[in-house]
Amino acid sequence: MERIEVGERRARIGRRHRLAPSCQAADPVQAAESVVVLHATDPATVHLSVAARVPGSEVAGTERALYDDRTLIRMLGMRRTVFVAPTKFAPVIQAACTDDIAVKQRKLLVKHLTEAGIGGDPDASGKWLRAVEESTATALTLRGSATANELSADEPRLRSRLAMAAGKSYAAQPYVTSRVLFQLAAEGRIVRGRPLGTWLSGQHQWAPAEKWVPGGLGDKLPVDDARAELAKAWLGSFGPGTAVDLQWWSGWTLGQTRKALKAVEAVEVDLNGAIGYVLPGDEEPTEELGPWVALLPALDPTPMGWKDRDWYLGEYKPQLFDNTGNVGPTIWVNGRIVGGWGQPESGEVRFRLLEDVGAEATAAIEIEAAKWTSWLAGVRVTPRFRSPLEKTLSQG
Fold it and tell me: Which UniProt keywords apply (predicted)?
């Protein structure tokens, strides 16, 4: 097997993820394509991840791609996570991951409806859910776009309550509204549109998929073909990586992962004793890059691209990740993480290095921090999932 060293893997990050100055993206779509998709669980991440890869990027440009040109689309995907994907690639994600998630989530919702006494038994609860879904979809079509509250006014059954964790100290009785809308979105029938508020808002209007994008999410792809396409895209951006890396990132079973790797004729390579994979013809070293630094936001796709992170993260996981595996804001030098950053109430970007990176790299990081302070222009971004170092830097 061809051996691919850690230095080569780090160089590929700079080039393929559009982080090195000589390799940056031309627009938000190209930025998303460079990492397959952008994480969108935290709405701020989308804009910050684009800005880290597109020189001169502004929030308005990313919003234009999302809501006017609609060349990017917000959707549920791998690991039941919300992403922003290039619209032309959305059908691949839908067939490779989201359709399966929709089936599992429907069973779970029917179970919760039955437990709440809505329908009486699973069969009746399933019929009740289908009726509410159709009524909600019709109401949304008539409105063109709508908020969850507006749809609840049109379809009062959306205000039915579930009984979650009954008898527990954390018991709750949430409305079924968000679960029904989640289900319709998972099945590709509706999409998340403009936010209700600023670019930091996590609340969105909803729209019928076929109204938002002509033809909706397109024709259904055979699931095996879609998984092969998704594996190919991941290898092109994140390869070399192990089967475990791809399995974790995609949310597939190990069997599905191996089948997808076989379908794209992935080539085995040696990753310091572990078996990794690249696309055919991608075994050779990338062209050398000059030195580069980058400040990436919480949940950026680059640090979240692999399960095994030691080769670019080192010993810094306790400071830079929360307890459930979500990464906070990070500082990169030549393909490895060396520190983190945060914002106090005043809004400027503060950073802390976790190792000595030398005077030249430190100076470059200071310049990048100042650029981010200027770009944010007083807007304070508090990550939805906060790392210990980010919390510390954001005090005061």
Answer: DNA-binding
